[in-house]
Amino acid sequence: MNITIDVNNFMMEQIGEEHGLRRPELNGLVPRVRSIHAGLQEARKNGAIGFYDLPQQDITGVQQAADAIAEKFDTLVVLGIGGSSLGPRALMSALRHPLHNMLDREKRGKRPRIFFLDNVDPDSHQALLDILDLKTTCFSAISKSGTTAETNAQFLIFVDRLKKELGDKWTEHLVLTTDRKKGNFRKIADDEGIQNFEIPGNVGGRFSVYTPVGLLPAAVAGIDISALLAGASAMAERCQSDDLWENPAYLNAACHYLMDVRKGKTMAVMMSYSDGLLNVADWFRQLWAESLGKRKSIEGKDVFVGPTPIKALGVTDQHSQLQLYAEGPNNKVFNILRVEEFNQSLAIPKGYDDMPDIAYLSGHDMGELLRAERDATMFSLTRRQRPNCSITLPKVTEETVGQLLYMLEVQTAVSGGLYNIDPFDQPGVEMSKQFTYGLLGRQGFEEKKQEMDSTKPGKDDLVL
Amino acid sequence: MNITIDVNNFMMEQIGEEHGLRRPELNGLVPRVRSIHAGLQEARKNGAIGFYDLPQQDITGVQQAADAIAEKFDTLVVLGIGGSSLGPRALMSALRHPLHNMLDREKRGKRPRIFFLDNVDPDSHQALLDILDLKTTCFSAISKSGTTAETNAQFLIFVDRLKKELGDKWTEHLVLTTDRKKGNFRKIADDEGIQNFEIPGNVGGRFSVYTPVGLLPAAVAGIDISALLAGASAMAERCQSDDLWENPAYLNAACHYLMDVRKGKTMAVMMSYSDGLLNVADWFRQLWAESLGKRKSIEGKDVFVGPTPIKALGVTDQHSQLQLYAEGPNNKVFNILRVEEFNQSLAIPKGYDDMPDIAYLSGHDMGELLRAERDATMFSLTRRQRPNCSITLPKVTEETVGQLLYMLEVQTAVSGGLYNIDPFDQPGVEMSKQFTYGLLGRQGFEEKKQEMDSTKPGKDDLVL
């Protein structure tokens, strides 16, 4: 089962000259895409970029460890933020029962409940502590660098609780996923003999879903990670061509790029018409924003580029965002996630035949209603000259989700080339970290605190 | 306890001339805001706009009904979409235990679990059916018009199940919230003798959180709706002034408006530094988008206006969106939701003193870390000349949340005036509904189906 993309509604034939693309415009990008492709493949071969080859990895170790965790524990708590949480979250939502954590163990296929703590809100942490039994809980802390403030704080809190509750056995309730060679978590894992998994040095957080970051929690939950990687492999084959007319990731990237820089569509809405795929849009939101939102070009010039990714949910957001999408400024592209067949069918029964607004629904399936609303919305956006494209999954399975995530990663990498920026760094988040250190009194950052103190406005200014 | 707004970081003194506002610009809006205020108060007095006066309503009936439901049922399922779900969801997340539905009844204060079904995804519906016991479940269907396709489909499904499971007693497991006088749900409620609540005719869905739409589920869950409305009342008093320098809702509206139309900040990010308030940002997303995203001006001219609201979560999105926010195009304003004191304190214990990236965290509280990251992020955005403002809640309580939602409603109403559009209609969603009818074969919409069929691109076009 192949996923497909459809970019017809990006074209002037469908949405007119002002907002639509012409084929020659896309043709004009063919040579550039070819050269970006060559550069990426070069970096892949020399080991600078690692995500491309993850589908070919040997997963025996991860699978065995996951099965052992599933056997031994009733709950897995993932401690991590950003890519350390968004990837596995997306897999869980797409591929497990929507209320997985509320099912009893039998109905969960004897697999643990999975919780993600990806913020430092004390109320959320205490809430989880209220329902956790540490004796049957395993914690999986994920940080490539071992310097992530949020994960380190969580780590200190839960290690402390584990030690108090379990004594020497605390290390058995902990798994670390971190860099192969360096960093604090690597040292802790080695020093204390804690089970651990490796993130390759050439794979960044937002591209790490096919490392143990995504695979371990997924496998613990019972997701078939072998099928997932098979899907990714299949997409890797489809993305081998350097011709944007043949490579779905490249065609999508080229369209999105032109829409942003030539047509002023500065926002890219990924609208999932499936509850389960909404977290894929959330995962993509990081991938797209952090990879493409950049100040400096490759040559170091100020460019301040990057489309703003927005996640939305169909049909729900038709009752929240559609008014704006349809009638507001024409400054967005819409990327519709379509699912052709849902796992469940749910017939809408007969009733209230005398009420036309109810009666017409009888005899249809809920999935049919969802699909009709989805296609009607795409059509109405097209009628209003709003550029929209779609990605269709015949069904949501390990195989199709595996394809989808891999395609979006490839799309992001080539988009970096189109924007002429480095899609693999994130220099912009450093400043905020340094001011945080200053506020928390970390040694060496006293000046940062002073800088903040000295630039506060007067107390009575513009505060109501 | 008053919430406060702070718009200093919108001003040129803080973020420079290119991106910042000058006080004279805001002063220039004073007369217009005064006149918009007069118009809104006129419409309020003549009964055209109802949301202003909701805090003064008598809630005895809703409270009694809610207590009876809480006593009799173990689960409440809310069937509704858009405003029918976003308001009560926001209240639940902000004011109940973060894992309310996973607690046992005793720990929930003997209050029911609350589920919201606000999509038509069959997989989500079946998932909920997997864990529901209909004998102890009450369904609350909400639709002002009674024409909402999604809610009507849900209604047919659950009425059918209730009848099969409970026979004649099915009506006792159902509550309807709908228009006072007209529509299908009104007729059904009257004909079948189903308990029901009224949405005033002059209150639209997105302004309905202080009608039984929001209040009933909240009260069932044990939220103090009297304190909530007291908070709203307190804010109503603070919003009486027609002077934008004295009215927090007006000052915020004026700043946001100028940022959009004069400074090109087309996106308004509401970033909640509290897990519990994230759904307030989601509620606001509908309020802002559906109210302000309009094609036609009051005079009927094409204007295509409206800022795009985006919800974000701090600190989580610092590891997802901050790179873009800080270094991408300077085309957004940031509205930071700040909470000064969390409900729980959670100390970060000592440990790993030899690792500087971990050690500096010891001795701080999780809430302190969150606040430091938040203020550091605001400061770094300011340093990069990115306009940001904040709304501070001393603590998240019924009273402060009551203030917050009311303020944002008033802000939205006056913003409609500034954009010179009608903030209370939503004409843009109709087209998509009609095409849906066409696809589902509803009588009278055959032409819509034909229109869609006749404009499809060729099968092989731009599909990969």
What does this structure look like?
The structure is a homodimer of 464-residue chains. The first copy, chain A, is α/β, with parallel strands linked by helices and 464 residues long. Chain A has two domains: 4-42 and 229-418, Rossmann fold (3-Layer(aba) Sandwich); 53-226, Rossmann fold (3-Layer(aba) Sandwich). Helices cover 46% and strands 14% of the residues of chain A. Chain A has helices at 12-19, 23-45, 60-72, 83-95, 122-131, 149-166, 184-192, 212-220, 225-238, 248-261, 278-292, 322-327, 356-359, 366-383, 398-418, 430-439, 446-454, and strands spanning 4-6, 75-79, 113-117, 137-142, 174-179, 196-199, 267-272, 294-296, 302-305, 308-313, 332-341, 388-395. In chain A, strands 1-12-11-7-10 form a five-stranded mixed sheet, sandwiched between helices. The first copy, chain A, has a five-stranded parallel sheet with strand order 3-2-4-5-6, sandwiched between helices. A two-stranded antiparallel ribbon of chain A has the order 8-9. The longest helix of chain A is centred in the first third of the chain and has 23 residues, at 23-45. Chain A is globular, with a radius of gyration of 24 Å. At the A-B interface, β1, α4, α5, α6 and α7 of A face β1, α5, α6, α7 and α11 of B.
